[in-house]
Amino acid sequence: MAEEEVSNKQIILKDYVNGFPKESDMIFKTTTVKFKVPEGSNAILVKNLYLSCDPAMRFRMRKTEGSYVDSFVPGSPITGHGVAKVLDSGHPNFKKGDLVWGRSVGWEEYSLITDPETFFKIGCTNVPLSYYTGILGMPGMTAYAGFYEVCSPKEGEFIFISAASGAVGQLVGQFAKLMGCYVVGSAGTKQKIDLLKNKFGFDEAFNYKEEHDLDAALKRYFPKGIDIYFENVGGKMLDAVLLNMRLNGRIAVCGMISQYNLEQFEGIHNLVFLIIKRIRMEGFIVFDYYHLYPKFLDMVLPYIKEGKIDYVEDIVEGLESAPTALVGLFSGRNVGKQVVVVAHE
Amino acid sequence: MAEEEVSNKQIILKDYVNGFPKESDMIFKTTTVKFKVPEGSNAILVKNLYLSCDPAMRFRMRKTEGSYVDSFVPGSPITGHGVAKVLDSGHPNFKKGDLVWGRSVGWEEYSLITDPETFFKIGCTNVPLSYYTGILGMPGMTAYAGFYEVCSPKEGEFIFISAASGAVGQLVGQFAKLMGCYVVGSAGTKQKIDLLKNKFGFDEAFNYKEEHDLDAALKRYFPKGIDIYFENVGGKMLDAVLLNMRLNGRIAVCGMISQYNLEQFEGIHNLVFLIIKRIRMEGFIVFDYYHLYPKFLDMVLPYIKEGKIDYVEDIVEGLESAPTALVGLFSGRNVGKQVVVVAHE
């Protein structure tokens, strides 16, 4: 029997990117894909449904060595987290029709996945499938590991979250509220501030773009200081936070999106407060915590079903919308988790 | 009976200090002191023997709020760690003749100490008494707590120590060697480098003043990267270290002496490596670990007696030498722990 080939639209990275990524750094291409996994391979062939746009993908757009992820390959499709349906499987754990999510889905209609063991099979489907790019996927696990495992939070503590309406921040804030903490978030538009206060139940929120003096803003919302800072942005916000940390404070360094497109990272001047206030500042990567995923689902699925946690997604339709969506992350265009729909099923 | 008064030479801080401290920021004064503790007080009157010059005293020379130590009082004697002999006591735990060390000895011949409960009674006296300003005092406990409690060291790990011949660094290096680590130190003179390699048994040492490219120097000594950085200096060295940390590395932030005299701290540009390499960076203060002091003595006294640990002190004679000794810390003039002898007994 001749192997069926079908057309496969892709989004290709043209070359390594300097500065802010632009839509023109990516091009469309239509190629073909065989509709079966190669004989004897343990790969899976999937139809991609939802693609995730994540700030950390910026690292992969430059030539990096020694990072925790490989660079993208210029001339090849962008890859990232996504939700997909198995069309054919050479792997004993997966069968046709399975829904999966994982970290190495191509930005294309169909992907041949050669490391299916890194994928999770989706069990619970009475939630939006796109949630597996967000609250039930990598960003959800990032919020869970970062908050509960890295921040060592205690009831009643004062928590500050930057990029607080983003895919991770909105969850950290809600976890912290459920624990009985005082929670303040920063974001960059009025709409996001409204979300933080009115939808996610943050105690306070402020638009960092409207604050000329971030130190003064933090002092206004944290007259007694900050116990935990969930760091998503870096740069000037981090410097202002360091001035406002409490004794034995913790800073979970999840991301520094303000820095990713700079030729040289901004200087942070106030690290001496790490000593004065005995602060623990810790970088983490969600991949180190994926063994906790079942435990995380046990906690978060009931919260979703009981309406105790909300999740806001910014969903765009069509693979062709993906470059704009990805680029938009770095200007804060997205409101909530940025998702691209390639196909609904 | 009339209360006896004796003359008491003192070293007074003239005013808060900006920039590098100078000898002229301190003045001599001779006053008198009553030779008995006030009736009904639980203070102790001590004769000061050894005074400790510590980089962290720089913080107290400026007007600070919210720090872990109070500012010095302009017009009053400088205070710091020291070894003293009890002349009179209103406190049940201390009696005349006791030797003590603690953190609030005045820079003067005699001090009335109103918080004797913060002092340790010296038990073991078959070591130099000056050791209680160094290896058996605050710097020793700093090295012990910083290395064993903050760094989470493991045999065979790669350790880098800056200001490595100083009061704390020389001990951290020897503790690390005793644990079977690979240890490299940096310092600022040939004499110090020789000490590190030939007396303290560091595997390697380099003079940071002779390295135009600190990143390249670290890559030379750590081709596989650094597991633990014991941070004493801050600034450019920290930035270079961040580029060379290994996965799951730890940075114990003990001090940042290169920054203490600057109007604005230098910017640190490479904190994004905290994420990429999952680094924990933690500031600590020795005062939080003093409950471990008996355990520390149990470990370190045998090491001293068996010759497994050396300790180098830079001892100057006479209270009048104290300002020069203190100021010298910030140009790296001292070789080893800087001590001032006020009286030998």
UniProtKB/TrEMBL annotation, chains A, B:
Keyword Oxidoreductase: yes
Listed GO MF terms: oxidoreductase activity
CDD domains: double_bond_reductase_like
Domain of life per record: Eukaryota
Keyword ATP-binding among UniProt keywords: no
Matching SMART domains: PKS_ER (SM00829)
Residue stretches making up the Enoyl reductase (ER) domain: 44-340
InterPro entries: ADH-like_C, ADH_N_2, ER, GroES-like_sf, MDR_fam, NAD(P)-bd_dom_sf
Keywords noted in UniProt: Oxidoreductase
Pfam families: ADH_N_2, ADH_zinc_N
PANTHER family xrefs: PROSTAGLANDIN REDUCTASE, PROSTAGLANDIN REDUCTASE 1
Protein's name according to its UniProt entry: Enoyl reductase (ER) domain-containing protein
